[in-house]
C-alpha cells in the first residue's frame, strides 16, 4: 500500500477519532463504527466519504478483519458474554445448532432447562418425521421436567477449543482472498470492505478488527497509517423461550400449536399487539439493568424483527414505532414478508425532539389475507381543542390545553378479508374488519385524560359501527391497569360512578358521569384463559399467569419500577370468537431476569397475540 505525504499546511481529510457503538458484536446485527473526521477546511463531521463522493480529493477506505486464534473460545448460549464450560451432547446428537449447546456453568444449564428442553423436543419431532429413531436421541436423556438425565460434557480447560467440536467457528475461505498470518498464532481474515459490517455465525467466538484510512483520489495512496479499533468476541444472538399458541375453544383445549409451523386456518386470522419500546426511550439511565449492547437499536431492531416475523400474524399492531424506523426498517423489512403498512405518528404540540425520532402506531396486514379499505386517524390534540372550545371558559383554556394536549393518537384501519365468509349467514357478503391501534397517555396522575382519550376513541368507533355491520378489534398500550376506570369502560361499557379515579377531574371533562358509556360489546381476548371451563395442563398453566380478580394477565409490562398489565386486545364478542392465544410469560419464561428489556426480549412490554374467527352477528 502506497503512502503519500500530507498536503501542505495539513489541509487534508483527517481521522480524529474512531469508536464502536457497542464493544460486543452480535450475530446478525450491523456494526457501524463512529468515525469523526476533519475536512481540509477544518470542519468536523461524521458522514461517510466514499470514493464516489470524495471531499477535496480524498475519500475513506475501510476494512474488517476476523482475528482467528489458535485458542478459540466457546460462548454460553444463555449468557453470551461468558465463556462456556459445559456442552450438551444431546444438542449435538439431535443436530441443534451447536452454538446453542454451550453453557457457562451447571447452574446456568439447570436454570435454562425448561427452555432448552423445548429445543430438544422440536428437534426430535423433526428427526422422527425423517425416520430417525427416537430412542437414539431422546431416550438417552429423558423427557421429564428435570435436567438430571441430560448428558453434559465439561469442555477441557478454561478456554475450550472449538476446533474439536462439530463445525463451530471453523472460519470459511475468506470473502477477500488473503488471510494474513500474524504473530502469536493469529490469522487475520479480511471479511468486509465497507464501513458497516454484519457479524455472521462464522465470527462467533472471534474478535473483529475495524480499520479506516484516508486515501488520495488521484494517487490512490493512503495518508498515514490506518486507524483501528477492536471488538470483543462475537456472540450469538440470545434466543428467548419459544411461545406457543394455546387453544381456548372447547374442541382444541387440550392441545397447543407450534407457531413455527402454524398458519391461520380457513376463516380464522391472527392479530398481534406489541409496544416495541422506541429507541429514543431505551436509555441506560432508564434501563440500567439491561446490558448496553442489548439496548442498542442495531441489536434490538433485529431481535424485534425476528420475534415479530416468528409469530406469523395476519395483522400486526405496533406501538412506539419511531418515524424513521418505520420508513427505513419496519415497512421495507415486513414488506419482504408480504405485509402492507399503515402508519400514524404522534402529533408534535408537546414533543420537542427530532421529527424523525417521534414515535407512533404502525399497523401491518398480510396482503394475501386482507385488502385495505379505509384509514382513519384520531388525533386527541384536535379533540382536546374542540372540547375546550365547547366547554371551557376562555380564561381557563390555556390551562385546560396544557392538561389535555399530550400528542397521543390512534390509527384505525378498515380491512376486507380475502379468505371468504363461509359459515356465516351470507357467504357472499364482504367480510370487513375494523382494527384500532392506539397508545394512550402514560402519565399516572392524569387518569381523567386517559379516560377521556379512551372514551373519545370508543365514540369514534361507535360511529363506524353504526355505518357498517363490522367486527371490531381495539388493540394497543392503554397505560391503564385492570380495575381502573379506563379498563372498566372498555370491558364493561360503563364506569363505576363511585370509583376513586373519578375524583380527579379538575376540568370537568368527565361530567356528567352518565355519558361515560359505549355500546360496543367489547371483551378482552386474554380473559378467555380465565373464562374457559376446559381443563388441561396448558390452560391451567396459563391461568396461573392470570389475575383471578380481574381475569387479565399478571403483567404485560415488566420493568424495575413497574410490573403490571397495560396492553390489551379487545374484540366485539357478538361477531368474533377467540380460537387461541399466545401463551403468557412468567418468571421462568424470562429466565429469572428481574425486568425487561433484556438480551432475550428487546422491549419492556410483551407481545400479545390472539386468533379469531368471524361468527354470525348475534341479533338482539
UniProtKB/TrEMBL annotation:
Pfam families: Exo_endo_phos (PF03372), zf-C6H2 (PF15801). InterPro entries: CCR4/nocturin_mRNA_transcr, Endo/exonu/phosph_ase_sf, Endo/exonuclease/phosphatase, Zfn-C6H2. Its EC number is 3.1.13.4. Residues 272-605 form the Endonuclease/exonuclease/phosphatase domain. One of its GO terms (molecular function) is RNA binding. Residues 161-184 are annotated as: Disordered. Keywords: Cytoplasm, Hydrolase, Magnesium, Metal-binding, Nuclease, Nucleus, Repeat, RNA-binding, Transcription, Transcription regulation. This is poly(A)-specific ribonuclease. It comes from Urochloa decumbens. The lineage of its organism: Eukaryota, Viridiplantae, Streptophyta, Embryophyta, Tracheophyta.
Amino acid at each position: 500500500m502506497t503512502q503519500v505525504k500530507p498536503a501542505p499546511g495539513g489541509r487534508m481529510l483527517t481521522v480524529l477519532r474512531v469508536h464502536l457503538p457497542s464493544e460486543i458484536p452480535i450475530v446478525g446485527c450491523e456494526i457501524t463504527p463512529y468515525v469523526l473526521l476533519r475536512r481540509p477546511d477544518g470542519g468536523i463531521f461524521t458522514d461517510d466519504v466514499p470514493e464516489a463522493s470524495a471531499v477535496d480529493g480524498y475519500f475513506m477506505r475501510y476494512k474488517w478483519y476476523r482475528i482467528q486464534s489458535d485458542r478459540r473460545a466457546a460462548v454460553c448460549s444463555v449468557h453470551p458474554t461468558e465463556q462456556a464450560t459445559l456442552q450438551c451432547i444431546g444438542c449435538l446428537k439431535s443436530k441443534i445448532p451447536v452454538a446453542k449447546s454451550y453453557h457457562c456453568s451447571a447452574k446456568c444449564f439447570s436454570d435454562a432447562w425448561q427452555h432448552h428442553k423445548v429445543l430438544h423436543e422440536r428437534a426430535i419431532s423433526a428427526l422422527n418425521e425423517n425416520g430417525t429413531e427416537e430412542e437414539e436421541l431422546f431416550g438417552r436423556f429423558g423427557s421429564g421436567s428435570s435436567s438430571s438425565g441430560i448428558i453434559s460434557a465439561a469442555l477441557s480447560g478454561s478456554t475450550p477449543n472449538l476446533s474439536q467440536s462439530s463445525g463451530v467457528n471453523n472460519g470459511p475461505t475468506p470473502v477477500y482472498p488473503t488471510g494474513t498470518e500474524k504473530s502469536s498464532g493469529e490469522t487475520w481474515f479480511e471479511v468486509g470492505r465497507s464501513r458497516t459490517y454484519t457479524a455472521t455465525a462464522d465470527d462467533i467466538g472471534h474478535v473483529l478488527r475495524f480499520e479506516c484510512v484516508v486515501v488520495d483520489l488521484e494517487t490512490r495512496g493512503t495518508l498515514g497509517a490506518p486507524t483501528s479499533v477492536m471488538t470483543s468476541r462475537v456472540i450469538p444472538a440470545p434466543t428467548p423461550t419459544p411461545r406457543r399458541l394455546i387453544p381456548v375453544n372447547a374442541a382444541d383445549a387440550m392441545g397447543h400449536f407450534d407457531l413455527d409451523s402454524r398458519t391461520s386456518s380457513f376463516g380464522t386470522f391472527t392479530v398481534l399487539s406489541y409496544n416495541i419500546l422506541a429507541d429514543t426511550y431505551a436509555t441506560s439511565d432508564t434501563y440500567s439493568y439491561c446490558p448496553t449492547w442489548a439496548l442498542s437499536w442495531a441489536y434490538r431492531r433485529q431481535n424485534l424483527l425476528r420475534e415479530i416475523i416468528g409469530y406469523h400474524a395476519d395483522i400486526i399492531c405496533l406501538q412506539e414505532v419511531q418515524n424513521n424506523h418505520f420508513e427505513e426498517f419496519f415497512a421495507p423489512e415486513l414488506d419482504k414478508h408480504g405485509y402492507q403498512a399503515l402508519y400514524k405518528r404522534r402529533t408534535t404540540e408537546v414533543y420537542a425532539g427530532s421529527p424523525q425520532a417521534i414515535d407512533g402506531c404502525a399497523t401491518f396486514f398480510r396482503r394475501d389475507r386482507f385488502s385495505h379499505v379505509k384509514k382513519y386517524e384520531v388525533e386527541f390534540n384536535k379533540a382536546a381543542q374542540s372540547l375546550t372550545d365547547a366547554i371551557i371558559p376562555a380564561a381557563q383554556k390555556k390551562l385546560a390545553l396544557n392538561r389535555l394536549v399530550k400528542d397521543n393518537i390512534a390509527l384505525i384501519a378498515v380491512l376486507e378479508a380475502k379468505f371468504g365468509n363461509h359459515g356465516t349467514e351470507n357467504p357472499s357478503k364482504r367480510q370487513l374488519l375494523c382494527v384500532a391501534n392506539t397508545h394512550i397517555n402514560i402519565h399516572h396522575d392524569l387518569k381523567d385524560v386517559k379516560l377521556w382519550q379512551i372514551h373519545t376513541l370508543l365514540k369514534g368507533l361507535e360511529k363506524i359501527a353504526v355505518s357498517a355491520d363490522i367486527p371490531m378489534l381495539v388493540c394497543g398500550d392503554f397505560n391503564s391497569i385492570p380495575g381502573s376506570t379506563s379498563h372498566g369502560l372498555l370491558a364493561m361499557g360503563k364506569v363505576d360512578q363511585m370509583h376513586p379515579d373519578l375524583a380527579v377531574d379538575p376540568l370537568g371533562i368527565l361530567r356528567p358521569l352518565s355519558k361515560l358509556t359505549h355500546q360496543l360489546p367489547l371483551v378482552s381476548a386474554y380473559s378467555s384463559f380465565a373464562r374457559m371451563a376446559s381443563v388441561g395442563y396448558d390452560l391451567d398453566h396459563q391461568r396461573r399467569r392470570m389475575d383471578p380478580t380481574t381475569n387479565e394477565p399478571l403483567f404485560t409490562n415488566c420493568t424495575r419500577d413497574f410490573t403490571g398489565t397495560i396492553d390489551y386486545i379487545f374484540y366485539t364478542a357478538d361477531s368474533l370468537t377467540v380460537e387461541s392465544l399466545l401463551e403468557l410469560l412468567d418468571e421462568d419464561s424470562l429466565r429469572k431476569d428481574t425486568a425487561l428489556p433484556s438480551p432475550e426480549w428487546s422491549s419492556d412490554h410483551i407481545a400479545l397475540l390472539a386468533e379469531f374467527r368471524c361468527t354470525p352477528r348475534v341479533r338482539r
